[in-house]
Amino acid sequence: xxxxxPRKSLLFAPxxxxxxxxxxxxxxxxxIIIEMEDGVALNQKIDARANAVEALQTFDFGRRExxxxxxxxxxxxxxxxxxxxxxxxxxxxxxxxxxxxxxxxRAIALLDEFDPTGSIGLVAMIExxxxxxxxxxxxxxxxxxLNGLIFGAEDFAVLTGAVRTREAWEVFYARSxxxxxxxxxxxxxxxxxxxxxxxxxxxKAECHIGRQLGFVGKQAIHPLQLEVIQRTFSPTDDELTLxxxxxxxxxxxxxxxxxxxxxxGRMIDAPIVRQAERxxxxxxxxx
Length: 287
Hints:
About 45% of the residues lie in helices and about 15% in strands. The protein is of the alpha/beta class and about 290 residues long. The longest helix is centred in the C-terminal third of the chain and has 19 residues, at about 235-255.
């Protein structure tokens, strides 16, 4: 399913707090994730559901993507959550703890019931060792609706017994696996949360590595993180200038019947040209 929104930054907003929801609707994020799962206390789940529906029906999100993370399939809340929010027409349903194709199929069944035209997308959260090992099957199961994968590092680390570190090598394999699966199936890959809200140097480092790995964007848990995320996942002016030169030179070479060529001492061939085209495409949505 095609993605209709840029997804450099995705900001979580707890549905249990109407004030934070209203504030998030005006934030600079590309996507707002109305949060009904881990960020909401058990005794607030029902109120959060009502708040999420009200936000979808009454708040002005502008051009921001309206995403909703419901509670996981298998919980007592999933069915009622999904039915309530799908009736309120979000842009995208975010499915947490998508460990296998069965969770995807259950979500798609409800999406097909409430949205037979297929306008509401689905994003799966990959948060467990089982999910990482089932990435191919999960992506294949979601072909009709799935347009993104979000990596959840904290749950993954807990389940593997990994110790979370600043360098994040303990989740490197899983991050790479998510990016690889997303690329194979034409999906957006969204990187993990940085829980250190005030540590912008750590956030910058995580964003930099995430972009190098191939993620198109990153989750945010506070508006203060958005500027760094937006900037890092957007092409710089220098990158855009180089991409334009590569594409222009490749166009001229193709017209002359030539193949690979040199530009500024660098060999340029078809993969390099395709990468330049991707940079230009992301530049069009630069904030």
